[in-house]
Design brief:
The complex is a heterodimer of chains A (231) and B (274).
Chain A (H helix, E strand, L loop, with lengths): L11 H26 L4 H15 L3 E2 L6 E2 L4 H8 L1 H19 L7 H25 L4 H27 L6 H37 L1 H6 L17
Antiparallel strand pairs in A: 1-2
Helix pairs in contact in A: 1-4, 1-5, 2-4, 3-4, 3-5, 3-6, 4-5, 5-6, 6-7
Chain B lengths: L2 H14 L7 H17 L8 E2 L2 H17 L4 H25 L5 E6 L4 E5 H27 L2 H10 L4 H30 L6 H32 L17 H20 L5 E2 L1
């Protein structure tokens, strides 16, 4: 993911912008509404944003394709806040990554937002929701949701690159080539990211259960140690 | 240079360069318009033809403005370019070797298939190289001359919702907080032999991330308390005192954009035919 600035030719970057823009506006609307209702949620939202920034800045060069492999962090954000708000946070994170790290870009923001901020979190959230409905252990749900969100992000990126750089006139073979390269680094990374998210989730449940309950993620009563931190 | 150092340097440059005191409206308008025009020029790209005139012109102008007018240190500019250009070269080689259709340049018989390199693949890859290099120079001009705080004020002026602008400022602050705390924790773990084995190093990483998350969360809550104590009413007030844009500068940029668009249209059919 993170297609570099200028890597997508016209008209592809415009097309992805047009697709992402309405969803982006909806996300911003949701953030405005949520922060109006609970101003105390702002630091948590900003924190998840910074967290996504820091862990997705750990990039491994994936050798090719104007893009790089790394954990995305947006799956976890989607579990916490839902896909719409994650989309809005991703906009900010992607702009900062483009500006501070030359990682992603302004013209490719639409495409990157669609893969990392919209499609990935949407799949992650759906899996999390399905696992919750099926009453499966939340740890497994968090793992599946974040790992799949990560993979989905890369599938979409490979698809976007395949559309912009068709191979022999075929989008599919181009997609297969791009994805083949990501897959080698990305499948182990997706698993690692899933494990990390599970550990984080159990940490949060243990120490910050109150805020998770407020967000409607946990229905179970948490331990008495809430809000007492001694790492 | 490692990543955290690099973006601390970029941040510093945004506040200390020779253009730091000039209007962010002018700088942002210039950088974004040049970026959009130069990337949009790729609309006229033809398979088998290398067209590089517009991106090279944009690259030259932006680089000379960054180094000459804004007086950004050349080694910082180079450092910033190193990693993206390296990735870009690898990507372009990949596209040149494995993509394209139409007229082949060379056909290499392999045991199971024939590997063909196409003219259109090569032109696609070279055009991409020039396009990205031009686009990066515009982006770097903006980043190296304009601070994030100024950009946030600008965002508020163009009526981006208040909540988003506030979130941007908080995220910007937390990024640096996160990096500082994680460097300290990592040092503490190293002193306590975190890498004594594979399993313990994995566990150390998980512990670091977990406690980092909670630590910063706590910090966030304390920040909110501090803000409340100082009369936070759900709106962060930023001092909006940057100089207003000079009319001559704005007219100059519009003129430049018109010339650039004219150049795009004039050169749309010219280029090196492979």
């Amino acid at each position: 993911m993170h297609i570099m600035e200028g890597f997508l030719p016209s008209p592809w970057w415009q097309i992805w912008w047009i697709i992402s823009l309405p969803i982006m506006i909806y996300g911003i609307y949701k953030v405005t509404k949520l922060t109006k209702k609970m101003p105390e949620i702002k630091p948590l939202l900003a924190l998840v944003g910074a967290f996504v920034f820091v862990i997705s800045a750990l990039k491994l060069p994936s050798l090719v394709a104007g893009s790089s492999s790394h954990p995305t962090g947006t799956g976890f954000a989607a579990v916490l806040f839902g896909p719409a708000i994650t989309g809005a946070i991703s906009v900010i994170v992607l702009v900062f990554q483009a500006l501070l790290l030359a990682h992603g870009g302004i013209t490719t923001l639409g495409a990157n937002l669609f893969s990392m901020g919209i499609a990935g979190p949407a799949i992650g959230f759906f899996i999390w929701w399905a696992f919750k409905k099926a009453r499966i252990n939340p740890a497994i749900g968090v793992f599946a949701a974040t790992a799949m969100a990560d993979l989905m992000t890369y599938i979409i990126t490979a698809f976007q690159l395949g559309l912009a750089f068709p191979d022999n006139g075929s989008v599919f073979t181009a997609f297969a080539k791009f994805f083949g390269i990501y897959a080698t680094t990305q499948i182990p990374l997706a698993i690692a990211e899933g494990l990390l998210a599970v550990l984080l989730f159990s940490f949060l449940t243990k120490y910050k259960g109150s805020i998770l309950q407020k967000l409607g993620i946990l229905k179970i009563p948490t331990s008495n140690k809430t809000d007492e931190v001694n790492p | 240079m490692s990543h955290p150092d690099l973006y601390a340097e970029v941040d510093k440059s945004a506040y200390t360069n020779a253009l730091a005191k000039s209007s962010p409206v002018t700088k942002t308008f210039f950088a974004l318009s040049a970026l959009l025009i130069s990337v949009s020029a790729s609309y006229f790209d033809m398979p088998g033809v290398i067209s590089f005139i517009v991106p090279v012109v944009v690259f030259t102008i932006c680089t000379s403005l960054t180094l000459g007018l804004a007086k950004v240190k050349a080694h910082l500019y180079l450092d910033l370019f190193t990693y993206p250009i390296l990735m870009l070269i690898l990507s372009c080689i990949f596209i040149a070797l494995f993509f394209g259709s139409g007229t082949p340049v060379i056909e290499i018989p392999l045991h199971w298939a024939t590997w063909t390199i196409f003219k259109s693949g090569i032109s696609m890859s070279v055009n991409t190289f020039f396009r990205v290099a031009g686009a990066l120079s515009c982006l770097f001009f903006l980043v190296l001359t304009t601070s994030i705080t100024d950009l946030c004020v600008l965002l508020r002026r163009i009526r981006i919702p208040q909540a988003m602008v506030e979130m941007s400022m908080l995220i910007y602050r937390y990024i640096f907080l996160f990096l500082e705390i994680s460097a300290k924790m990592s040092l503490a773990q190293k002193l306590r032999l975190k890498r004594s084995g594979w399993l313990s190093s994995i566990r150390s990483l998980a512990m670091l991330t977990g406690s980092l998350f909670i630590r910063t969360l706590d910090q966030g809550e304390r920040t909110l308390v501090a803000m409340n104590a100082r009369g936070y009413d759900g709106e962060m007030h930023i001092l909006d005192d940057f100089p207003s844009a000079r009319k001559t500068a704005l007219v100059g940029i519009v003129l430049f954009d018109v010339l650039l668009i004219a150049l795009v249209l004039l050169t749309k059919t010219s280029g090196v035919v492979l």
